[in-house]
Amino acid sequence: MTLLHAQSLTVLLPHGEPLFSDLSITLQREVTALVGKNGSGKSVLAAVLSGQRQPDEGKITADSNIVVLPQLTETADLSALGTVAEALGLDTCLQALSRIEAGSCDPADFEAVNDQWDLPVQLSRQLKALGLPDDPWQQCSNLSGGELTRLRLWLCFQSEAGLLILDEPSNHLDQAGRAWLAQQITDFSGGIFLISHDQQLLKLADCIYELSHTGLACYGHDIADYRLQKQQEAQALTNGLAKAKQQMTSLTRQHQRNEEKAQKRAASGNRDRRSSSQSKLLLDFQKNSAESAASSRKQKQDQQLTQVREKLKTLQAKVDPAKPLSFSTEAVRKQSARLLTLTELALVRGKVPTVSRSVWYGDKIHLQGDNGMGKSTLLKTLLGELPAKSGEVQRHGSVCYLDQHFSLLNLNDSILENLLRLCPAYPASELRTLAACIGFRRERVTQLVSTLSGGERMRLAMLVVSHQYQEGLLLLDEPDNHLDLAGKALMAQALNQHQGSYILVSHDPAFVSECGVNQHWAFTQ
Question: The organism sits in which domain of life (predicted)?
Answer without folding.
Answer: Bacteria
